[in-house]
Specification:
Its main location: mitochondrion. It holds the Pfam family COX6C. It is found in: Mitochondrion inner membrane. Keywords: Membrane, Mitochondrion, Mitochondrion inner membrane, Transmembrane, Transmembrane helix. By secondary structure, the protein is mainly alpha-helical. The chain has a domain of 40 residues. The chain is built from 1 helix and no strands. The protein is rod-shaped, with a radius of gyration of 48 Å. 0% of the residues are buried.
Amino acid sequence: MNPCELPPCPPCPPPPYPPCPQVCGPPPQPPLPPCRPKPTMRGLHWAQTKRKIFQALVLSAIAGTLVYTLVGLKRREAYRDFYE
């Protein structure tokens, strides 16, 4: 058989479509935690000690004043009345 006598070849199939591009991007980042200031660690013990000493002095002054006014003045008056 002569090659010229062969029937024509069927047309080639169309090339396949290119794959779809990826629409998804990278996953979203998690939300950032809220900003908090770092605690001051330098001198923390001394600062707490000063605060506690100040609180102790104020409370003892208040307690002393209350004892003087509520107990001491009444007792002084009672002694004055007794020895008159």
